Amino acid sequence: MTDTMLDQLRRIAGAEAVRREPGGSVRVAPPSTAAVAGVMGMAHDTGWRVTVEGAATWRAEAAPADLILSTRALDDVDATPVEPGVIRVGAGAPLERVRRHTLDLGGWIPLDPPGRPDRTVGAVLSTGTDGPLRLGVGGLADQVHRLTVVTGEGRVLQSDEPAHADLVRLQLGTFGGLGVICEAALHLHELPRTDTTWVRGGSRDRLTAAAREIAERHLPVMAVELFSPALALEGEWLLAVRVLGPRDAAAIVADRLAAIGGGGWFELPPERRILLWNGAARGVTSVPVTLRLGVLAESLDETIDTVLARLGEGMLSASPASGRLRWSGVADATALRELRGELAPREIPLTLERAPWRVLRAVGHFGAYREGAGPPLEGLRERFDPRGVLVAALEGGMEP
Ligand SMILES: Cc1cc2nc3c(=O)[nH]c(=O)nc-3n(C[C@H](O)[C@H](O)[C@H](O)COP(=O)(O)OP(=O)(O)OC[C@H]3O[C@@H](n4cnc5c(N)ncnc54)[C@H](O)[C@@H]3O)c2cc1C
Question: 359 CA to middle of ligand 1, Å?
Fold first, then answer.
C-alpha cells in the first residue's frame, strides 16, 4: 500500500485509527459506521482484500489480506434504551460490558456464547455463536431487533429498510465474509429472579435419555447441556440443567428432577455454576479446531457416535433438546471433509467455527449444505460484496 493510499485512509478514518503492521498489512479501526463505509468503498475501488476483526480472541490466525478492519472503535453502548425494550450497541462493544450495562438498567440480554468476556457483539453475531440458552430464548436472530451492516462496496444497509428485511437472517453466521456488522439493536429481557443449575454425572446414554425426559415433561428450563468429561473437567459425562426466571420455576424443576434419570441431581453453588456455564470453553482455544452441528434431538446419540468415531473424543458439548452439538479438538482437513460428507445426506450441517487458515481455506466454514440454508452463496456475494473484497473461507476450496 502506497503512502498516498495510507494518507487517504487516514483522511477517512482519522490518523490514530490507521497503523501499519509488521507483516506489511495495514490495520484500521474506523470510529463510526460512516468511516467503515468510506474504508470499504476505498477497498472496493482499489481492489484491496479486507478481513474483519473484533477482539481477535477467537480466530486462530487472520486471513491473508491487505487491510485488517478492526471494530474496536465501534464500542459505544447507548446509555438508555433507544425504544422501550431495545438497546443499541456498537459491534465492537465487549459482551461483558453490554451485560453489565443492561444489568444497571434492570434488564438482561440472553446471549451466552462460549468465550472470553471481551468477545465483541459483532463477532458473536457474525460467527452465529449462540450458547445453551438457545433452548429457552431462541437463536441469535431472535435477540436482534435491528442490524446495521456495511457491504463490500461500502453501502450502509439497515434491516428495518423494506429492501433489506432479510438482512439479519442472511448476515448472521457469515464470519465477516458478506459484510461488516457495525451496530445492533438488541431486545432487552426482564432480569430473571433466579439462576439455578443442577447437574448429574453418569454414562452418556443415561444422560441423553434423562435430557429427553426433561424435554418430554416440558420442564420450565432455559438450558439443558451435556458436557464430555474433558470439557466438564470431571471423570464422567455431565448433564447440566439451568433455570432462569421466577423463583417458583426453580422449586418446580427441583421437585420434578428428582424423578428423572434415577435421581442423583445436585444444585451447583454459585461459583461452580458460573465456572460451568462461562468457563466450559476454557480449554477450547488450546486446540486448533472447533465445529458445530445442527442435529435433530432424536438422532443426537447416533451423531455423537459418528463424531467421536471420526474425530476422537476431544471436548464435546451438546444441547439435546435444541439440537446443537459442538466439538473441539485436533483434526485435519481430510477428516473434517469426510465427516461433513457423511453428515450431509443425513441433513446435518457442519459449520467449522475455528481452524488454522490452511484448514479453513480448504474445508470452509460451511460447505454446500449450510445451516439455516438461505439463497446460494454466489447470489449473496453478488448482492453484498460483488468484487470479493472481504476475505473469509465460507465454502472452502480456496487457493492458498
Ligand atoms: C476460550 C474461548 C472459547 C470459545 N469457544 C467458542 C466456541 O466453542 N464456538 C464459537 O463459535 N466460538 C467460541 N469462542 C469465540 C467467541 O465466543 C465468538 O466467536 C466471538 O464472536 C469471538 O469474538 P471476537 O470479538 O474475539 O472475534 P474475532 O476473533 O475478532 O473474530 C471472529 C470472527 O468474526 C468476524 N467478525 C468479527 N467482528 C465482525 C463484525 N463486526 N462484522 C463481521 N464480521 C466480524 C471475524 O472476521 C472472524 O471471522 C470462544 C472464544 C474463546 C476465547
Answer: 17
Which structural domain, as residue segments, surrounds residue 161? 86-190
Atom 2, ligand 1: residue with shortest CA distance: 115
Q: Does the beta carbon of 67 sit less than 6 angstroms from any atom of ligand 1?
A: no
Return the CATH number at 54: 3.30.43.10
287 lines ligand 1 (CB under 6 A): no
For the whole model, what pTM was predicted?
A: 0.94
CA distance 287 to 82: 41
Residue 44 lies in a domain: yes
Sign of CA dihedral 367, 369, 373, 379: positive
Instruction: Give the three-class secondary structure for 357.
Output: helix
CATH code for the domain of 316: 3.30.70.250
Pick from 166, 190, 214: which residue ends a domain? 190
Q: How far apart are CA 121 and CA 101, in angstroms?
A: 14
170 with 199, same domain: the answer is no
Averaged in consecutive runs of 10 residues, what is the pLDDT profile of the chain (400 residues)? Answer: 88 95 89 98 95 87 89 94 92 95 92 88 95 91 97 98 95 95 96 93 94 91 94 89 90 92 90 80 81 90 96 92 91 96 93 94 85 79 95 82
